[in-house]
Amino acid sequence: MSVADIGWIGLGKIGLPMAARLAGSGRAVAGFDVAAERRDLARAAGIGIVESLDAASRGRAIVIASLPDDRVLRVAMLGAEGALAAMEPGAVLVETSTVSPEASAEVAQAAEARGVLYLRAPISGNASVAHTGALACLASGPREAFERAQPVLATFTRAQRWLGEGEEARYAKLAVNLMIAVSAGMMAEALVLARRGGVAPRDMLAVMAESAIASPMVLYKVGPLAERDFASTFSCRQMAKDLDLALGAARDTSVPTPLAALVRETYSALIAAGDGEADYIATVKHAERLAGLLEEEAETP
């Protein structure tokens, strides 16, 4: 195995730009995705392409996965032709997806049986900034796995934080996304309340950006909201999926999460209204509908 020989599984909207940054750093990357069009895009980005999970995994010192959900994780890692079946003892599996602690623990058990070091490394950030490297990595698993993978992770994330030996990173990522979802709901209600009080949306957005409530998430959404731009950086449907994971983890650990449950219903309403693929900040549209405000009125300066 060569440390520079890295397998990459999953070349989706966030996986591709991360893998491209890794390849651009001079590392040899063998990338795989089930979708031919994603493989073509990756090839154009300078990533070496292989045609199977086995080829992306066998003989690689480090294998990195970026996958959409628990089901795909289980298939790609645990199936008879999955990555773990091909990986050699002593190799490192770095799994960057947002998945449940339960599914992650299943992968951990299989990795241990194989002698593979398993690093849970979910990414905080979204596809719109992944090409810049402005992502953060929350990591947990064997400390040795983290130390070996950190130089690689640093090619496509600005920060890497090790949180413990087990599933800590999974819980941390779900907690972060829960905060983002609740913040999106809160921001939406605040904007609608201000409009009812006669404050123009652009003015209220400026107040948000200039006041004590400004956060990176608020600042990131001020521009798109000023233009009524709900093009997805992370969709309502994706946020609903992550809230389901957070609620499931909360039930399993006996943690009451009433705000998470309430905001999950907001995303159910958005999906039912046809906004499932809109950006998660479409909570603003939901709040406007509840208040009886027509969306076109929001465009008035």
How would you describe this protein?
The protein has 301 residues and is of the alpha/beta class. The chain folds into two domains: 2-165, NAD(P)-binding Rossmann-like Domain (Rossmann fold, 3-Layer(aba) Sandwich); 171-299, N-(1-d-carboxylethyl)-l-norvaline Dehydrogenase, domain 2 (Orthogonal Bundle), CATH 1.10.1040.10. The chain is 52% helix and 13% strand. It has 14 helices and nine strands. The protein has a six-stranded parallel beta sheet, with helices on both faces. Helix 4 packs parallel to helix 6 (101-114), helix 9 (168-196) crosses helix 12 and helix 9 packs parallel to helix 14. The longest helix is centred in the middle third of the chain and has 29 residues, at 168-196. It is elongated, with a radius of gyration of 20 Å. The N and C termini lie far apart (61 Å). The model has no long low-confidence stretch (mean pLDDT 95).
What is the strand and helix layout of this fold?
Blueprint lengths: L1 E8 L5 H10 L3 E5 L3 H9 L3 E2 L3 H5 L2 E6 L4 H9 L4 H4 L5 E4 L5 H14 L2 E4 L2 E2 L2 H4 L5 E4 L3 H11 L5 E4 L5 H29 L4 H10 L5 H11 L9 H17 L5 H15 L10 H9 L10
Parallel strand pairs: 1-2, 1-4, 2-3, 4-5, 5-6, 8-9
Antiparallel strand pairs: 7-8
Helix pairs in contact: 4-6, 9-12, 9-13, 9-14, 10-11, 12-13
* Major sheet attributes: 6 strands, parallel
As a whole number of angstroms, the C-alpha radius of gyration is: 20 Å
Query: According to CATH, what is the topology of the largest domain?
Result: Rossmann fold
Count of individual beta strands: 9
Strand content bin:
5-15%
Q: How much helix is in the residues? A: 40-55%
> For the terminal residues, how far apart are their CA atoms?
61 Å
The level 1 CATH classification of the largest domain is Alpha Beta
Q: Averaged pLDDT, please?
A: 95
Domains (count): 2
**What is the succession of H and E elements?**
EHEHEHEHHEHEEHEHEHHHHHH
Strand ordering within the main sheet: 3-2-1-4-5-6
Query: Which structural class matches the secondary elements?
Result: alpha/beta
CATH architecture of the largest domain: 3-Layer(aba) Sandwich
CATH superfamily of the largest domain: NAD(P)-binding Rossmann-like Domain
What global shape is seen? elongated
Which regions have little confidence, pLDDT < 50, spanning 5+ residues? none
Number of helices: 14
